[in-house]
Structure formats: C-alpha cells, structure tokens
Amino acid sequence: MMDSEEVYRARLAECLAAAEATNLPQVRERHLTAARSWQTLLDTVLERKANVAALQGAQMRHHQKASTMSETEYEIADTAVDAIEDGTPVMKAFRQSTGRSQHDVVVKAGITEERLAEIEQGSTASADELARISNVLGTPADLLVDE
Question: In this structure, are residues 137 and 95 in contact, taking their beta carbons and an 8 Å threshold?
C-alpha cells in the first residue's frame, strides 16, 4: 500500500505529464492547476514528516538526558525527602512533591492508574515504565526506585 507521499508524487507526475502532452491551453491549465494542488499536499506531508522527525529527535534527546541525569545533578525537593523519611514509597513521594496527581502521570506516561498504584506501592516497574514516569516527573529514573 502506498503512503500519502507516494500517492501525491504519483498524482503530481501524472498531472504534469498530462499537461505536457496536450496542445489545448485550457486543458493544460487545468492539469497544471491540479498539479499545483498535488504539490501543495505533497509539501504539507513532507513538512509534517519533518516536524514529526524533529519532535521524535527532541524526545529522544530529552529521554537520554533524563535517563543519564544522576542524583548528584538533581536537587531533591525537601517535601520528597520528608515524605520518604516518613515511610512514603519513593515514587509516590516524588510524584507528590511535583504536585502531580496519579491521573496526570498515567495520562502522560501511557500506563493505567492501577499500574501506577502498584508501582508506587512497591511493584517493580519495567525499564520502559520507569523511563516514561521519569520523563513525566522530570526526575532521574534511578531516584524513583526504592533501594
């Protein structure tokens, strides 16, 4: 199956070939008008693909930065420290110190509320879950794990 870029390129080529093949000015103009429309659609698709690629690159760089940040480069909020000292599970303490609700975290991290509750109560998070929660909270992943 062809993607939209391939379809638009094919249609553009067809219109240009048809415009070149005709001797009638009005027909040529209709084909050229159609070709301009296909070119506009093609340009839009290419721009969107470039934007998606740039966004994915930025997310990758952010993820790499967050995952390589260590405790020595991150200032832990006093509220998180106090909560952890009072027995609150580490991930829950960090989430609460950022002012985020469980719902906010799960929506942005792409996990269920039930799963986040399990993780906050001591269930082991997968590396992927941990990375996504870390990115949402803006907290290094190694700090979110109970030792």
Answer: yes
Residue with tokens 């799963």: 115
The 3-class SS string of the chain reads: CCCHHHHHHHHHHHHHHHHHHCCCHHHHHHHHHHHHHHHHHHHHHHHHHHHHHHHHHHHHHHHHHHHHCCHHHCCCCHHHHHHHHCCCCHHHHHHHHCCCCHHHHHHHHCCCHHHHHHHHCCCCCCHHHHHHHHHHHCCCHHHCCCC
pLDDT tens profile 23-71 = 999 999 999 999 999 999 989 888 888 877 777 777 776 655 555 555 4
Tokens of 57: 């690159």
Taking a C-beta distance cutoff of 8 angstroms, is the pair 56, 64 a contact?
A: no
Instruction: Please give the radius of gyration of the chain, using alpha carbons only, rounded to the nearest integer.
Output: 26
- Encoding tokens for residue 119? 């993780």
pTM of the model: 0.51
Rounded CA gap, 35 and 30, in Å? 9
